[in-house]
């Protein structure tokens, strides 16, 4: 008579150390860094060799000099402009997100509300932002930051609402059946099943909404407002044929948008480290 050998559990692979993770992140991002600096160098070389006039395309060195020269106080204070535009974008993001989440909970809970609200939400999303920007400026005041926040909120509302609605409703039927077999209440199902399922959808919507809120704020600034915002700096510097300042303001807006996006990515890693989309981004 033979006795079965005791089963031995398979050990889990050790989690990579901090230096290994840093090295993996470096290797993962190295191609993008090389392409970025290569494109900047090629841009500088081609513009200088071709004697392209500055009003057509200034070289990166001139854009960098304009960014440094106009960073503080002056005719175009870029730092103050970036802070003011970011404040408008954050305000619009908060307003649009709160309204979008509230509407999403309503349409996910009541099917009749979904049929009534979704056509209006789609219609609001289809309106060109340049058509409503002058109207919002007239309603809330041209120099009032709230007008730009509302423009940004209009862009943010739809992606947040539609993604959160999908996250609350696209739940595995087996999970709902299991919870109901335990006689769980609707509140318990919402807290234990629907909200965790909706959280990745919500954070994905925020990634889109961050850039949309910044776009909405800058577009609203084109139609008037304080001179110390990115949109007005772009318009005024282009009118004065200072295209190096124009490109510096555009660069600053792009960097602000990237930082805004990376903040949501960091928040995603904190809130849903268990999700497949986050685990797949970790360097090997």
Provide a descriptive summary of the structure in words.
This protein is mostly helical and 284 residues long. 76% of the residues lie in helices and 0% in strands. It contains 11 helices and no strands. Helix 8 packs antiparallel against helix 10 (243-271) and helix 9 runs antiparallel to helix 10 (243-271). The longest helix has 37 residues, at 186-222. It starts with 17 loop residues before the first helix and ends in a 5-residue tail after the last helix. The model is unreliable at 1-10 (pLDDT under 50).
Briefly, what is this?
With 284 residues, this protein is mainly alpha-helical.
Note poorly predicted spans.
1-10
| Distance between the amino and carboxyl termini | 47 Å
Rg over CA atoms, rounded to whole Å, is 25 Å
Largest sheet, in brief, is: none
- Strand percentage, roughly? under 5%
Which bin fits the share of residues in helices? over 70%
Average pLDDT reading:
83
Overall strand count: 0
Helix segment count?
A: 11
Oligomer: single chain
- Overall structural class, as computed from helix and strand content, comes to mainly alpha
The shape is flat
- Helix-strand pattern, N to C? HHHHHHHHHHH
List the helices and strands and how they pair.
Blueprint: H1 18-50, H2 60-69, H3 78-109, H4 111-126, H5 129-140, H6 145-169, H7 173-181, H8 186-222, H9 230-239, H10 243-271, H11 276-279
Helix pairs in contact: 2-10, 3-4, 3-6, 3-8, 4-6, 5-6, 6-8, 8-9, 8-10, 9-10
Features:
0% strand, disordered N terminus, 76% helix, mainly alpha, 284 residues
């Amino acid at each position: 008579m033979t006795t079965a050998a005791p089963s031995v559990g398979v050990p889990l692979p050790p989690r990579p150390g901090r230096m290994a993770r840093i090295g993996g992140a470096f290797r993962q991002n190295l191609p993008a860094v090389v392409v970025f600096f290569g494109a900047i160098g090629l841009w500088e070389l081609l513009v200088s060799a071709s004697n392209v006039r500055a009003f057509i395309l200034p070289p990166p060195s001139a854009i960098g000099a304009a960014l440094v020269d106009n960073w503080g106080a002056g005719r175009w204070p870029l730092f103050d402009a970036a802070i003011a535009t970011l404040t408008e974008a954050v305000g619009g993001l908060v307003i649009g997100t709160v309204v979008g989440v509230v509407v999403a909970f309503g349409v996910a809970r009541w099917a009749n509300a979904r049929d009534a609200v979704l056509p209006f939400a789609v219609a609001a999303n289809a309106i060109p932002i340049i058509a409503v920007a002058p109207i919002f400026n007239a309603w809330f005041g041209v120099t009032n930051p709230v007008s730009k926040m509302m423009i940004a909120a209009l862009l943010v509302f739809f992606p947040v609402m539609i993604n959160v609605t999908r996250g609350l409703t696209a739940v595995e039927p087996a999970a709902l059946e299991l919870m109901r077999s335990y006689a769980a209440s609707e509140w318990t199902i919402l807290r234990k099943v629907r909200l965790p399922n909706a959280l990745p959808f919500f954070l994905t919507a925020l990634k889109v909404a961050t850039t949309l809120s910044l776009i909405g704020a800058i577009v609203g600034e084109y139609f008037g407002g304080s001179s110390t915002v990115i949109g007005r700096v772009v318009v005024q510097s282009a009118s004065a044929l200072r295209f190096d300042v124009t490109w510096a303001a555009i660069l600053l807006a792009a960097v602000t948008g990237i930082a805004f996006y990376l903040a949501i990515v960091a928040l995603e890693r904190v809130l849903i480290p268990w999700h497949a989309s986050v685990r797949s981004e970790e360097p090997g």
